[in-house]
């Protein structure tokens, strides 16, 4: 009879790819639970409008639902669709975001809206892969939008979901290592249901937010408790594993592309440290510092897509902004502005591209100029 008797599903072995039997039982349990016990009345639910889903996903990053609710409503009233947001002044977007924190999200939101209008005719791309190409939309956010709005069968893996799956699978590999995180993505994909991706995705979010809490998971109320390897061994708080020793430094700057009469102002970096001696853009420690310095400058500012440059010891997030001084601005006024930085001078664009530039700056210049020319 061996091989004929149907065995009860066993907990998933650590690091093993989730088997289809367990995957199916996991998703069945989660979907059933979400439909009866999950959240259904949040203002960004019950819609397939990607603008609304995207806005909520960005606002909910590192922010509680209760905090987001008021901002979400005000934002929608002021910018009811992606075209309205793209057409807005960045100051207006930041003002409306004020108090929500993590302002790079607001700048990226604005840059993303503009990219959708400029590159996609005002329509959100319908695949997670294309969504993930847009400013500020990471893999998990792209997957959530694609699953909720377009029914794509694709895995999410935000911080809460990492915790749920790491516990379920007793996934004890260090998630500080990118290779291990990729392995968890593989597991998350293997667990996807054949049908019901919306309820499944929402169920994972709801479970992470309301039951499988970081410090005190409510395992007795958990629909997947019979499958959970961490619960079976009472080792819930051991997961997810993320070492501190591997924690990398973080740095964040506003990066100023100052333009005047078809030229760009570059500064030569110090002879030691990151990008030593290369020509680069002036940096500001914060948007407040940038705003203070530029408060009386003439001209127009244009936010460009933020990005994180990965160095060996450091993740450096840069928020480029292009400030174009009017051509009529006199030499003395311009000299007063640029006097702020030593070791700087104006470059023709062609000359700048010939100079020693950090790779991200070269890429920024070439892609922005190519986009403008197309
Ligand atoms: Fe999280 Fe407990 Fe459910 Fe396991 S049983 S997924 S630890 S809440």
Describe this structure in words.
The chain has 374 residues and is of the alpha+beta class. Helix content is 45%, strand content 13%. It has 16 helices and eight strands. Strands 1, 2, 3, 4, 5, 6, 7 and 8 form an eight-stranded mixed β-sheet that branches. Strand 6 and strand 7 (314-325) form a beta hairpin. Helix 2 (50-60) packs across helix 3 (65-78) and helix 9 (159-169) packs across helix 11 (197-210). It is elongated, with a radius of gyration of 24 Å. The model is unreliable at 1-19 (pLDDT under 50). The site of iron/sulfur cluster has 15 residues, from helix 9 and helix 12.
Multimeric status of the protein: single chain
List the bound ligands.
iron/sulfur cluster
Gap between N and C termini? 68 Å
Q: Summarize the main sheet.
A: 8 strands, mixed
Strand content: 5-15%
Number of helices: 16
Low-confidence stretches: 1-19
Please describe the structure with a list of short key phrases separated by commas or semicolons.
374 residues; alpha+beta; elongated; disordered N terminus; binds iron/sulfur cluster
Q: Brief overview, please?
A:
This protein has 374 residues and is of the alpha+beta class. Helix content is 45%, strand content 13%. Strand 1 (249-260) and strand 2 (263-268) form a beta hairpin.
């Amino acid at each position: 009879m061996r091989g004929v008797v149907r065995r009860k599903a066993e907990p998933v072995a650590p690091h093993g790819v989730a088997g289809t039997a367990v995957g199916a039982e996991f998703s069945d349990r989660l979907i059933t639970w979400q439909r009866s016990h999950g959240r259904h009345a949040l203002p960004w639910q019950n819609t397939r409008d990607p603008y609304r889903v995207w806005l909520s996903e960005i606002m909910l990053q590192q922010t509680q639902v209760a905090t987001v609710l008021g901002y979400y409503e005000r934002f929608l009233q002021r910018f009811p669709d992606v075209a309205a947001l793209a057409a807005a002044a960045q100051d207006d977007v930041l003002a409306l975001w004020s108090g929500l924190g993590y302002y790079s999200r607001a700048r990226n939101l604005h840059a993303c809206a503009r990219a959708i209008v400029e590159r996609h005719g005002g329509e959100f791309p319908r695949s997670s892969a294309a969504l993930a190409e847009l400013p500020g939309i990471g893999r998990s956010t792209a997957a959530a939008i694609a699953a909720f709005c377009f029914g794509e069968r694709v895995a999410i893996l935000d911080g809460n979901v990492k915790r749920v799956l790491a516990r379920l699978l007793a996934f004890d590999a260090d998630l500080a290592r990118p290779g291990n995180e990729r392995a968890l993505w593989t597991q998350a994909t293997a667990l996807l249901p054949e049908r019901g991706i919306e309820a499944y995705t929402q169920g994972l979010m709801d479970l992470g937010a309301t039951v499988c809490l970081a410090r005190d998971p409510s395992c007795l109320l958990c629909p997947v408790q019979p499958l959970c390897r961490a619960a079976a061994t009472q080792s819930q708080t051991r997961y997810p594993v993320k070492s501190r020793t591997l924690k990398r430094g973080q740095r964040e700057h506003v990066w100023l592309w100052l333009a005047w009469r078809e030229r760009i102002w570059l500064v030569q970096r110090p002879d030691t440290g990151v990008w030593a001696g290369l020509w680069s853009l002036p940096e500001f420690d914060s948007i407040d510092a940038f705003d203070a310095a530029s408060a009386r400058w003439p001209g127009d500012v244009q936010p460009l897509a933020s990005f994180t440059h990965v160095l060996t010891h450091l993740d450096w997030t840069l928020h480029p902004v292009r400030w174009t001084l009017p051509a009529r601005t006199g030499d003395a006024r311009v000299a007063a502005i640029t006097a702020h930085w030593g070791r700087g001078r104006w470059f023709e664009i062609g000359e700048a591209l010939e100079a020693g530039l950090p790779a991200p700056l070269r890429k920024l210049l070439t892609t922005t100029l190519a986009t403008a020319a197309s």
